[in-house]
Amino acid sequence: xVEYNITLEGKTVLVTGAAGFIGSNLVMRLFKEFKDIKVxxxxxxxxxxxxxxxxxxxxxxxxxxxxxxxxxxxxADRQAVDKLFADYKPAVVVNLAAQAGVRYSIxxxxxxxxxxxxxxxNILEACRHFGVEHLVYASSSSVYGSNKKVPYSTDDKVxxxxxxYAATKKSNELLAHAYSKLYNIPSTGLRFFxxxxxxxxxxxxxxGFTNKLREGKTIQIFNYGNCKRDFTFVDDIVEGxxxxxxxxxxxxxxxxxxxxxLGIHTADPMMYEVLRKRAEEMRKHPTEAxxxxxxxxxxxxxxxxxxxxxxxxxxxxxxxxxxxxVTIEVDGQCHNxxxxxKSDADRTAxxxxxxxxxxxxxxxxxxxDLDNVLKKIxxxxxxxxxxxxxxxxxxxxxMVYNIGNSSPENLLDFVTILQEELISAGVLPADxxxxxxxxxxxxQPGDVPVTxxxxxxxxxxxxxxxxxxxxxxxxxxxxxxxxxxxx
Length: 487
Ligand SMILES: NC(=O)c1ccc[n+]([C@@H]2O[C@H](COP(=O)([O-])OP(=O)(O)OC[C@H]3O[C@@H](n4cnc5c(N)ncnc54)[C@H](O)[C@@H]3O)[C@@H](O)[C@H]2O)c1
Description:
Blueprint (H helix, E strand, L loop, with lengths): L10 E6 L4 H13 L3 E7 L7 H12 L5 E5 L5 H11 L3 E4 L8 H4 L1 H22 L3 E7 L23 H20 L3 E6 L2 E2 L8 H10 L4 E3 L6 E2 L2 E2 H12 L23 H16 L3 H12 L7 E6 L2 E7 L4 E5 L7 H16 L3 E5 L1 H6 L1 H11 L17 E6 L5 E2 H14 L13 E3 L15 H7 L7 H16 L2
Parallel strand pairs: 1-2, 1-4, 2-3, 4-5, 5-6, 6-15, 7-10, 8-17, 13-14
Antiparallel strand pairs: 9-16, 11-12, 12-13
Helix pairs in contact: 1-2, 1-8, 3-5, 5-6, 7-14, 14-16
The chain binds nicotinamide-adenine-dinucleotide.
């Protein structure tokens, strides 16, 4: 059951980047859902892409005739931000203003530092001095860098950004954590995964594909179309943001990580289901050594840190502690066949790659030398935990969630559906020769074949996960595109 602790009725909400793709959709949605709400928008209307699109979005909001105030200013302008907070005293702030895009940061790094770092810092300072009930801000799936482990989980270590954009987004999360901790500002970071939809961003691949197909040009599909991405429909993102806005994280989270399956770590949902059932069975029927060890972990206050029979990618580990990046393997009776030895070795190698330390104990060690076993485990669980818990369980009113489609779509399927919907909407002629306008090419260096979000925490806390079918979302985009460009 979702626990909301913030009422938006009767409140003032500040949305930065309100003329942007997600921002404008959010403002429309807030007016639709709440009868008595004041929304203040700020946007500097950067010319990163066609500004007409931004003015059209603002005109649509204006046309609703609701309690709406728009200020054209930059969040990097400290005075403008302070004045806005002083004038309107927003109860909830949603920071979406940012310089987006990965490629643009190569040629225009200043824009990222200004909007994403100085701008975000100004918002944090204003939240601190004027007091807000909840700061929600956009982060990005790009913080996962070239992480090969899927699905991407907020429990993953994300210290290796591969673009300036990603570095600024990760910095936002770190700055927010510090402000949440120091000044008790409840903050929630949302890592959005490839958002698409009507009046979307022209710099994004699906939009570029559409322009090219319409102009009769050829589109390049990387990795021969075998990339899987979690394209997320904008309405799903907005639904998630609106839910999250109404629940400020608390300094002492009621839900402890104990016993909850916080990380699904396998690429294939069917395989995950098989593993999940197996792990459940193993939990129900532990070996004697596993049972003894679990009891001693609990008796020594480590029960909250460890999870039993946890799934990591295609492996099940006996005990798992993310906070200290350690797993424990207790040899059962059947670890001596060649097959098991090989699979154990594969798992150990993969765990090392993922930054975990694997502690291994034999049944005899656990049963006959328990003190020593416990000493070794305690050594790993002392000192400073790894900073990848993203606030979960810490006494800081801070959370980070993924909002993305957790069923990744094949790029080729995505483009095929897009092309079909563009034909249905009349953007492309009925006899459009799609085959002649697509070129399947190899993977670009640094690209990862599969990215998708683990949305378990979002589902757990908000009872929601993005699920709009691709065809539905692309149909809405194609219709809008026809109306906008087909005039
Ligand atoms: N669209 C996606 O796929 C996606 C994915 C991950 C994260 N995000 C993040 O979500 C947020 C919204 O993205 P979007 O897709 O709506 O992008 P967008 O570019 O359409 O919207 C951002 C808006 O912020 C404004 N802006 C930029 N710098 C500003 C500044 N200094 N002061 C005031 N306004 C400023 C821009 O004019 C723009 O209208 C961004 O923070 C983005 O990084 C988006």
